[in-house]
Design brief:
With 326 residues, the chain is an alpha/beta fold. The protein is built from ten helices and 15 strands. It has helices at residues 12-22, 37-47, 56-60, 77-86, 101-113, 128-138, 173-176, 178-189, 283-292, 298-320; strands at 3-8, 27-34, 51-54, 67-70, 90-93, 118-120, 145-153, 195-201, 213-219, 225-231, 237-244, 247-251, 266-269, 274-276, 324-325. Strand 4 (67-70), helix 4 and strand 5 form a beta-alpha-beta unit. The longest helix is centred in the C-terminal third of the chain and has 23 residues, at 298-320. The protein is globular, with a radius of gyration of 20 Å. The chain binds NADP nicotinamide-adenine-dinucleotide phosphate. NADP nicotinamide-adenine-dinucleotide phosphate is lined by residues 9-14, 34-35, 39, 71-74, 76, 94-95, 121, 163, 169, 176, 256.
Length: 326
């Protein structure tokens, strides 16, 4: 039987995920909710969704909704994820999952208490090449992993009123972009750092008290280190390097491959040989299928909560201006 999704929010990313939901096997989109009647109707017509709903709780309470896709500013993720869980609806929540580890854990607990499944919409984790990279790390092709670096950015300008510039809505590149870079580092290091040191630049000309650029170092057990760079003041970067004693993995489009180009990722050997990693698939559809499937989601949920632990530590280091233990 088809899993019927309800969409909460009508932001920029909504259009893309609605198309992915509508094109995934055994999934349909039955309703979309906005705070305003006009917006709900306009988006329902645009996306070909049967029901336009005014109010998020009204959507959650519908009998024709089995799961929700939450596409709201980060400050609203916890409230509406927990509301969905309490109504026994499965949850696909946009990244970052919440504002803090504590909030993320509350979502997890509400979902478990109500026996619903949840994922954050961090689609790169579901791409076929992510599994290929995990295999390259695990099977020793890289030798011993020593250093990981990740960089995610895009250049302003923002539209006026963009939630990314509003601290009260969870704005700033730490939650928005270090979510990806910190998550990649956690994935490659297979765990949490022991210590981090981060600094942030807040350009008051464009900002409103939220980080515009974040630079960080992370230290892990076994002499593994990592560096992270993200910001709204450099052109689009979505890349990483996982450097091992025998070879390195290099990827320059990991958050989402460019629409008009095949996904890219290479193993660079010490000899100078370069091998393209083989992979295929649509990462968003894989993510949706995993959410509605019946395989355990624990490791993905742990990845999300650990990513919040890293971001919490980076925020604390920025606040104190010194390294902090994790
Ligand atoms: N996975 C990805 O690749 C990706 C890419 C971009 C963004 N995102 C994430 O997706 C989420 C939404 O991002 P977006 O860029 O689509 O956001 P957006 O364009 O700002 O839209 C957010 C929506 O949230 C609703 N909303 C409710 N209360 C709001 C408030 N106080 N201020 C502003 N909007 C409010 C609005 O819908 P109504 O007015 O209709 O209720 C609005 O359209 C964020 O968490 C972001 O990090 C993910």
């Amino acid at each position: 039987m088809s899993v019927r999704f309800g969409i909460i929010g009508t932001g920029r990313i909504t259009r893309r995920l609605v198309a992915d939901l509508q094109s995934t096997d055994n999934v349909s989109v039955s309703a979309i909710a906005s705070r305003t009647d006009e917006r709900a109707r306009w988006y329902a017509d645009q996306y070909g969704i049967a029901n336009a709903v005014t109010g998020y709780q009204e959507l959650i309470d519908r009998d024709d909704v089995d799961a929700v896709y939450i596409s709201l500013p980060p400050s609203l993720h916890k409230e509406w994820s927990i509301a969905a869980a309490n109504a026994s609806k499965h949850i696909l929540c946009e990244k970052p999952l919440a504002l803090t580890t504590d909030e993320a854990t509350q979502i997890d607990q509400a979902a478990k208490a109500n026996q619903v499944r949840w994922l954050d919409a961090t689609a790169w984790l579901h791409h076929g090449r992510t599994q290929a990279i995990a295999s390259a790390i695990a099977d020793g092709r890289l030798g011993k992993v020593g250093h990981i670096s990740a960089a995610v950015s895009f250049f302003q300008p923002f539209q006026s009123g963009d939630h990314r510039l509003d601290a009260s809505l969870g704005g700033g590149c730490l939650l928005d972009l270090a979510w990806y870079a910190g998550g990649l580092i956690r994935f490659a290091a297979k765990g949490l750092p022991t210590k981090v040191f981060a600094s942030a630049i807040d350009d008051s000309e464009i900002g409103s008290g939220v980080p515009q650029r974040v630079t960080a170092m992370l230290w892990f057990d076994d002499n593994v280190t990592a560096t992270l760079s993200c910001g709204y003041d450099t052109a689009t970067r979505k890349w990483f390097e996982i450097a091992g004693s025998a070879a390195s993995v290099v990827c320059d489009d990991f958050t989402r491959p460019w629409a008009d180009k095949p996904a890219r990722c290479w193993i660079h050997a010490a000899s100078g040989d370069v091998q393209q990693l083989a992979y295929e698939g649509n990462q968003e559809q894989e993510m949706i299928l995993r959410l509605i499937g019946d395989s355990p989601l624990d490791s993905l949920q742990c990845q999300a909560i650990d990513t919040h632990r890293i971001l919490d530590a980076l925020a604390e280091s920025i606040r104190l201006g010194e390294p902090v233990s994790v």
